[in-house]
Amino acid sequence: MAADPTKLKVAKDLGRQDILFGLARRKGGERVYVGSSDFKVYDVDFASAKLEPQAIGEHKSYVTGVALAGEDQLVTGGYDCRLNWWDVQSHQAVRSVAAHEKRIRMVVASPDGRLIASVGDDMACKLWDAASGKLVRALVGHEPLTPTHFVSMLYAVCFSTDGRLVATGDKTGRVCVWNVADGKQLAKLDASGMYTWDPVQRRHSIGGIRSLAFSPDGTTLCVGGTGKIGNIDHLDAPARLEAFDWQSGKSKLVLSTDGKHKGLLEALAFAPDGKWVVGAGGGTAGLIAFFDLSAGKVLFQDAAPMHVHGLAINETGDKIYAAGHNKLLVWTL
Predict the structure, then answer these.
(1) Which fold is adopted by the domain 7-332?
(2) Is 68 exposed, middle or buried (0-12, 13-18, 19+ CB in 10 A)?
(3) Which residue from 56, 247, 294, 300 has the fewest beta carbons nearer than 10 Å?
């Protein structure tokens, strides 16, 4: 039976005292790896009768990025600006690299597991050889300052499904698309509708691009964040997804959740067959939403039991694993 987003339900959940930021799932099973606000990296097997997370190791600050490079290597990044490699079988540290000059925001692996991409508040995306830990190249194209001359941030990164492209997204709503083979910048996109600046009451900004996902055929790039915000002190706008024909640089459509489901889309993923995109995140409360790009509509939306920071879909598209504030869970569709 095909996965049906309207049948979404929580199948398993694990309460936590911490905030879980990054999540990676091991292919073909129920095992996930998560990064925590307690500075540790955890191994969790949802196939076990009793969920007992096992600590693999730790950083010196929040662990905000988690990626699996092949079957045996886990790479994590954190606010300590380091990338750490772990052997997932032995739970032993393999190497640690001083990767960025400022906080690391996200870490992802290429589909073939040969490359790791990391982004940080130094506004650089760095590509690493997963086997050796050596830097392949740095991709620099995002402005270090916002239009109002405040420090910007580089939140999001993703690979295309064929591994030939990598996209990066920053606080002010700018997206760069890069050619992995030579590091050439192929496109620059404007998703500034996800960025709000208040020049009067707070002199403060909020929002930005928090998630990115290429369609399976690589022609469409989805960008996740939030809409324009009225009260700059709160994430009180509907979550926002914008789909681009990245080669032409044109926005194809913008979809937003309703007034009940507000906040950021912190994570995005396409269904394996490409029929829908799922996004999750939240503000003061959590949210999950499914978007049908061909029909140009929100297929289904619901509250999540936590603000979600990371998610992964299984190969058949009928299970979603999610990590966030004080909870780790599995949804079935």
Answers:
(1) Methylamine Dehydrogenase; Chain H (2.130.10)
(2) buried
(3) 294
CA angle, residues 32, 10, 222, in degrees to nearest 5: 65
- What is the Cα–Cα distance from 212 to 279, expressed in whole angstroms? 10
Per residue of the chain (333 residues), give pLDDT as tens. Answer: 679 999 999 999 999 999 999 999 999 999 999 999 999 999 999 999 889 999 999 999 999 999 999 888 999 999 999 999 999 999 999 999 999 999 999 999 999 999 999 999 999 999 999 999 999 999 999 999 988 888 899 999 999 999 999 999 999 999 999 999 999 999 999 999 999 877 765 556 778 999 999 999 999 999 999 988 766 666 778 999 999 999 999 999 999 999 899 999 999 999 999 999 999 999 989 999 999 999 999 999 999 999 999 999 999 999 999 999 999 999 999
